[in-house]
Amino acid sequence: MTARGESPYRARAGRAGLPALHEALDEALTDAVRRTGAFAGGLFLWDGDGALRKLGLAVLYGVPEEVTRPWNRISATAPTPVADAVREDRLVWVGSHEDLARDYPRAAVSLPYRSALAAAPLPGGTAPRGALLLLWPASHPRTAGRREQHHITAAARRIARVLDGAAPPPPVPERPRVIPPAPPAPRGGGRAAQAAQAAADWIERLPEGALALDLEGRISFLDGTAAALLGRSAGQLLGTRPWQSLPWLDIPLVEDRYRTAVMSRDPVEFTALHPPDHWLYFQLYPDAGGISVRITPTGRPETGGQPGPPAGPPRTEAAAAPPQTGRIYQLLHLAAALTETVAVRDVVELVADQVLPAFGADALVLSAAEAGRLKITGHYGYDAATIDRLDGLPLDTELTPAGQVMASGVPAFYGNAREIAREYPGAPRISGKQAWAFLPLTISGRPVGCCILSYLRPHTFTADERAVLTSLAGLIAQALDRARLHDAARDLARGLQQTLLPRSLPVVPGLEIASRYLPSGHGMDIGGDFYDVIPLDTTTVAAVIGDVQGHNVAAAALMGQVRTAIRATAGAPPGEVLTRTGRLLADLDTDLLVSCLYVHIDLAHRLAILAGAGHPPPLVHRPGTRPHLVDLDPAPLLGADADVPCPVTHLDLTPGTLLALYTDGLVEKPTAAGIDPDRATAELASVLAARAGADLDDIIEALVHPAGPVTPQTDDVALLLLRI
């Protein structure tokens, strides 16, 4: 018996360790799929820490794992239904593939099947634990009613309750744990056996072939007619995939039709040529247990006629196999994803997550030529000692082919240690790998670097793999070159930003001070937000915070001039400080405007005098009262009208009073309901109230990284806390 209201899955998971938790999650996911009428589902959980944190597909039901590989790891900021569901803490419904292509074009590339899907967040204490993904056949209505949406969110809550009993949360495997489909219920009795034999005899007498595939695409049954039409015995075909055991079916069309049947649950058909001149018509009828296939002999189909166009010319065992359909979709997904990478780290993570699984590789090294040496810009699957040994080798080194490949622009493939040892005897001993692909990264004939994929076991590189990897290297080269330029610009921008902002805050007796600057999540990581604290004498200090329009070098340069102007006039009445700074902007004849808040603090008399020019008013928190915005009478933005005087506001400072000065990037964040600064400001006030008396650095951390759904940062943030 379980306690009233307690999930039986959670109760089971709480009695034992990880195996019991896996069993409980498997049962909860299977139950969610069945209760909602879906045909497949998956559980995404948080994987990793900090900036590298992603959503990983932990458990999968109803579809083969290889179909979902592009979705095995998803960034929290990626444009996908799962990421949106977790980031915005809401149910995401996509009623058709047309809707998916419109709202999530990148996801539609890697999931090109007619189906409906829903992603629901798994509720947690302060933020979602992950997401439940469900798939329905293409025949499902395009919209989901309230009752169906309730069933989906209720299923997500039941799964979340299972996770509540897990401490710590379960790890996310490299590949998801696939729940096998439930076997059909046995039907006992001699009469049932006689009926089954009669059905088998009936099938054998028909001129059509009967064949069954499981959801993994393997042949689980075929009759004698099907075996004869396919030209192989049942023993040769059972347990194999048709496009792997029959060379003439090894064409993208066949695997694509199978995937379409699995992912859309729609009947599909195609025609293929069994050499030398036998055309066969295949009809696939899928359901939750597998796929029934009818095979019918047919004459050569005419162009535009039924049942369909020929699949292609006759094929032989020796013919080069074209890329598998799954790999094609993975590479299309990769090509789309590479266009969105920003930094070198993003490129390395994407190649590690997508390319390595697609080709069965285990490790990766990205090298670039710098000053005649091989500089490693990223790696995965290698230990630090190996990377230290490889980093900085001369281009003409005899330890590795990387330099030669980069210089010649010709890729090199080594299927085992003996092959590479003939040319580079020391290479196999460096890392202990057993096979390598060295891919030159070139752009318009200019070498950018070298991408090395390696394997823990010997590997035979087919002509297909060599061709695809060579083409793929061009995509990686473009992304890597762009990422290196971005990283160089970012480092330059950060250096400039650090030069313009205060190196340290002054120590002022009787005043606690803490600050934080966060660059926006796009552009050059440089902007016009600034802050400063200026001691005027032993008992007075000036605090200033401001924001120059833009996220570029011009904004940063103007920010430096404004900060210098304020420092030069600090000590004058606050309104006059801003008025003089506004006149300076007019003299500079700049098109940029500046918001600014200047606070003159008299510690001896516990008084603050504030002057604002188009800047958000600060929050004030006095002990024993609720935090609230200062009722500030602001002037126009600096640079808008130099002749308008700047009014001032007086504020009493009782002991323990906290002032929070910030730029608008802290409160103007996009949410599911749009940008709501008032709501964001109220949340900041709640944080201050909940952490009254806490360390200022802890308060700042809570203000800039609040608990709840992850939202991308689109503007710079400057924050300055002052406590009497």
Please, could you describe this protein's structure?
- The chain has 724 residues and is of the alpha+beta class.
- The chain is built from 22 helices and 30 strands.
- Strands 1, 2, 3, 4, 5, 6 and 7 form a seven-stranded mixed sheet that branches. A six-stranded antiparallel sheet has the order 15-14-13-18-17-16, with helices on both faces.
- The protein starts with 7 loop residues before the first helix and ends with a strand.
- Residues 1-6, 9-16 and 302-323 have low confidence and may be disordered.
List keywords for this structure.
724 residues; 6-stranded antiparallel sheet; alpha+beta; single chain; 7-stranded mixed sheet; 36% helix; disordered N terminus; 30 strands
Q: State the helical fraction.
A: 25-40%
Query: What structural category do the secondary elements indicate?
Result: alpha+beta
Low-pLDDT stretches: 1-6, 9-16, 302-323
Q: Work out the number of β strands.
A: 30
Sheet with the most strands? 7 strands, mixed
Number of helices: 22
- Estimate the global geometry from the Cα principal axes: globular
Mean pLDDT: 82
Q: In angstroms, what separates the terminal alpha carbons?
A: 58 Å
| Rg | 32 Å
Strand portion: 25-35%
